[in-house]
Amino acid sequence: MDTISGNVTATCVGYSDFPAHVDEVVCMKGMIHRIREMTGFAFVIIRTAREVVQCVYSPDFSDYRMVDKVVEGCAVKLTGKIVKDATREGRYEMQIHDIEILSTPAEPMPIVINKKQLDNIPLDLDLNLRPVTLRSPKERAVFKIQEGIARGFRDYLFSQNFTEIHTPKINAQGAEGGANIFKLDYFGKQVFLAQSPQFYKQMLVPVYERVFEVGPVFRAEHHDTSRHLNEYISMDFEMGFIDSFYDIMNMETGALKYIMQFLKDSYAPEIALLGAVLPEIKEIPVVKFMDAKEIITKKFKKKITDYRDFEPEEEQILGKWAKKEFDSDFLFVTHYPSEKRPFYAMDDPADPKYTLSFDLLFRGIEITTGGQRIHDYHEQVAKMRARGMNPDDFESYLMAHKYGMPPHGGLGLGLERITMHLLGFKNVRYASMFPRDINRVTP
Ligand code: AMO
Fold it and tell me: Ligand 1 centroid to 253 CA: how many Å?
């Protein structure tokens, strides 16, 4: 271990403790983020867990040796005096007395991460170098905010008496249907990676009434789009004893309001660094699927070719409409056609061509799907049969229905999708720490 004087003992603090230690000698640990050499002294910028701290390394306060060994990427323990930054109001810096080098990098950085240039590097290069590029304050801020979204979701649901669950990701059946399912050889037997925790969260409603999970799910998306990942984090909840699927929408509105306030209160530095504009959520407007289609044709003169779902462009139109009409970044669209919803969705008794389900659009992109589920055993079996499914293949799922379950519903909210639109990214990969897509499984 290299040290300049080695004998200094002082309390170790973080940057947030600096104001309480002005004019005192303390110690701080961190990574050397940047060195700015000046005439006769240097600014050593230290990266700690959440801060970038300016330190002055000068012969005036230290013996100023080892300058050539003090390089970007070193892990260091600094000892020095805390002073007010003379040029930046409200900021503090350390006058370094002593540098202890805890580790030295084997090679110089492959890319500049401590200047603005990182904003302009191609996405692929950024992702290839993620273990390093994540060290840049802006990139790591994205995932602090993502942490805040997931924490807010959890905290809010705990406050509403939900139980957190962890369900298996290796399953005997897919829950969402469709072709986007990963098949896996499981000791000679074919199994599937979970497309969602749908079956398990429903099974747990008669157990805990209200459950939620934040966990990875897998979708074998064969195309390369800016909004699909092959593995993403799904924030799911399911609640029993609902009066209607509007209870689910109200719960989501409450969660989103809480999350935005939580981000404002606890993630202000990251929000400022990224210039993120948090949405003001009052009430979220609601429109029925077919009415939305009519708005798209009548008001925006777009010819509709598919009456079963929205094209991405139609979602964008609806996003603009919600902003203009209701000053809302969010829009609930309800009553999706039964044909396009999974077999567990409850059909609308008033018109069974449609379901008691919804999507939530955020700034013109779907971030949530949810709705009421079929709770009656015979009804669920009949819908499976009508779709050519064999109920025997779903025996354990159907046990929930067979032995009684309350009216219930829930939703799935894509963590990367909400992060992407909150931060205004054009590609969902910017909002995934280590994305998995059709071309990428590393790093
Ligand atoms: P759905 O399949 O619509 O619904 O997914 C729910 C939400 O997950 C996100 N999402 C994705 N994010 C990134 N990459 C993908 N490939 C991807 N696919 C989906 C979106 C989407 O709104 N079981 C139901 C939910 C429920 O009804 O509870 C489900 O999984 O944000």
Answer: 17
